[in-house]
Predict the 3D structure of the following.
Amino acid sequence: MLGCILVVDDNVLVRESFTELLRHRGYSVLQAGDGEQALAVVRQNAIDLAIIDVMMPTMGGLEFRQRLRHARQRLSTIFAPD
């Protein structure tokens, strides 16, 4: 079975596009609109990879990644260009 990917972006169209593409390729995909939501998703689910927008309201991608590391949660991340 393929892994679970978290798509984190404040732009709904971008999130939906990534989600559709990844699901079509057989991945399980979860979504979050900002870093705060993403942290909640990570705490409640087994995520293998996060695709993260750098610039988002509330908590951007860089801060999200720092907080993951501070919490000692290992998660592979890819930053998506704006």
The helical segments are 12-24, 35-44, 61-70. The first helix runs from residue 12 to 24. The chain has a mean pLDDT of 90.
